[in-house]
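User: Can you fold this complex?
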Amino acid sequence: MSARKPIRKAVFPVAGLGTRFLPATKAIPKELLPIVDRPLIQYAVDEAREAGIEQMIFVTGRGKTAIVEHFDTAFELETTMSERGKSLDILEPTRFPPGDIITVRQQVPLGLGHAIWCARAIVGDEPFAILLPDELMVGKPGCMKQMVEAYEDVGGNLISVLEIPREEVSSYGVIDPGEERGALTEVRGLVEKPPVSEAPSNKIVSGRYILQPEVMRTLEDQEKGAGGEIQLTDAMARMIGGQPFHAVTFAGRRFDCGSKTGFVEATLALALEREDMGEEVRAMARRLLG
Ligand code: G1P
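Assistant: Here's the predicted assembly.
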């Protein structure tokens, strides 16, 4: 048994407008766009559940209620399916015990740091996870489970990182890496969206975090940073030194579903791996490539 407080809560910032996917996201939250037949948010929630997390906290905004509907009972649908003798197993991942799906609104889009801070009363005084659903992480075990395992080992704060070509780092949070031990790297510094010439490494923050509740206090007086937004990265950077801070290099694949090409890549990759359609999709891809 580990002496550390277990990670029971996960925060999913889902208030973003999804302008990159317009017009698809005019009336539908981008988190509900499907990769094959599961919405993006479902992959992130499944990943959290696999890691033992029980409470899912969505930081939502206007026009995002369909996300909550997705994790609710669909009375008419389920009754009709049952009457027709259809199995409801396919809906299993969308079911939660009462009280375990929690939402809080971010009224104004002031940045990722501000979105997380909106969940402070629900997170309370325990360590918690954050998952950005745009980043689709595929692995066995999943990314959050790998992080929870690392957390049981070192405690403190953890972020998932991966290496990308140096010229692309300006779109991400970047770490200043210290000592490495297996998949763990000590984090000496963090900078949000640095110019390539000033980036301390090519290891980027890839959208999974385990943080101590003190981050909420730090966010309280966090000033605006890159893009004029209140950045989570900046608040985390201020916590380094006071608490252990490590990066976990995820053993698995990552798809950036915040970009259209990343979204298409994820769709193709997951379709190719599916037992029920992989072969057909492979043949189709060959045909299309001529
Ligand atoms: C956010 C974080 C950034 C991180 C990225 C991962 O940026 O601020 O540190 O690297 O997610 O996708 P955003 O994509 O919201 O600009």
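The CA atoms of residues 43 and 212 lie 24 Å apart. The radius of gyration is 19 Å.
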